Sequence to fold (472 residues):
Amino acid sequence: MGQLVIVSNRVAIPEKNAKARAGGLEVAVEAALRHKTGIWFGWSGKVAPTHTKIATQKVVHDEITYITLDLSKEDHQEYYNGFTNRVLWPILHYRIDLAEFSRRDLSGYLRVNDHFARELHEVLGPDDFIWVHDYHLIPLAKALRERGHKNRIGFFLHIPFPPPEILTALPHHERLIPSLCEYDLVGFQTGDDAFNFSRYLTRECGLPSRDFNFVVGDRTMRIDVFPVGIETAAFAELAQRSVRLPFVKRVITSLAGRALIIGVDRLDYSKGIGHRLSAFELFLQRQPQWLGKVTYLQIATKSRTEIPEYADIERDIGSAAGRINGAFGEADWTPIRYINHPYSHSTLAGLYRAARVGLVTPLRDGMNLVAKEYVASQNPDDPGVLILSRFAGASHECKAALLVNPYDPDSVAAAIAQALSMPLAERRERHNSLFRVLSHNDIQHWAERFLAALERKPNAIGQLGQMPSVGS
Ligand code: ADQ
Fold:
């Protein structure tokens, strides 16, 4: 049996004495590699100075071999800042209006995928299983197959997959999206995403689906659903300890008995922070009895700052928070505390536990782990209430949350009022039901299910269709 090779855009080599805990993908990769020897391969996060030769680096840590490569300035611009972040990210989040396509960026994207395949070619054994993560690496299996690799290769998309009516607005989609058929298994966060991909293949490639199995030449490609989880039990324990952290205690004291509402996001247009602030403003207008009695803490860490759309939302959200504070605040009360720097997971866990309401209202999100972390952090005897967008993948599992339409400020404002005055018995019942689901579907379960599905050979089924030729 071969080893497991995980490939993702970024690789996080564990640092000695690192304070911050791993982010979503990192925890997921650790869970996948927990009982196996393996390799984690990807970009180091560094951009190489011009004219230096780009070499791979190898580090072994806890039986995991980390192989990383730097990107050239041009690759970083075209592949990362360009095609993945300014074309694929917006379109896969249903925001065709924000996509800035250029042929040059597409060729940079294909070039970096080819570079990854060339380097992987040097380390892959014939029995290795390969698990590729996310939209940065859609054509990687094709680039590996072209080098003769017949390994089982799986792909998991962490973000949404839109319906073909939207996806076909992506210039050259017919060159890119069908290359997913070179994987043996393509995993999605929700049934809707999987169904959208299946419809794309049927509509655009003429491949009929039989139970999410597609015959492509002499192979079968399977689609399945694997909602990503968190380390639910470990997070619950962490939260229990973290409310006693001096910083968290200071925050609680500073609230002076006011109810805390918390939002935690990367500063990204998909997270709906602007809509959320408007809904909170509406709540303050409609429910004046809460004036002075509630504090909304929005932690929004800056990301992708080199991209203009991100600078725009940073400016818009900062000014909306200031405007609402100016209109509703008092000398002794600020309704919104707006913070741009990140906190460690232990601090976040303590803050989640201290919050009466977790406000998670993305306009579109693959899963949203913050929603799950908020639930895991609650005190089961006196839990807070999760308000969750129906457009987050997490809403498929978190049916006991207060589900809202983030585009409708009335529905979010009403949910805030409902959450703040929800009786204890109902809070416990909802939390119990959410926690049960998330304990079962935790990160370990997710990794094990994906790997078991990848290792399983498909049942032989009849020839269903021929793949259209995919350009390179
Ligand atoms: P993200 O878009 O980054 O992930 P999300 O799932 O909400 O979004 O968060 C990932 C991790 O980052 C969580 O562990 C969270 O605690 C942490 N995080 C987020 N904001 C933070 C902040 N302001 N400060 C500190 N930590 C913060 C992508 C997809 C999601 C999908 C994940 C995993 O966009 O839909 O859930 O991958 O598949």
Summary: The chain has 16 helices and 15 strands. The mean pLDDT is 92.
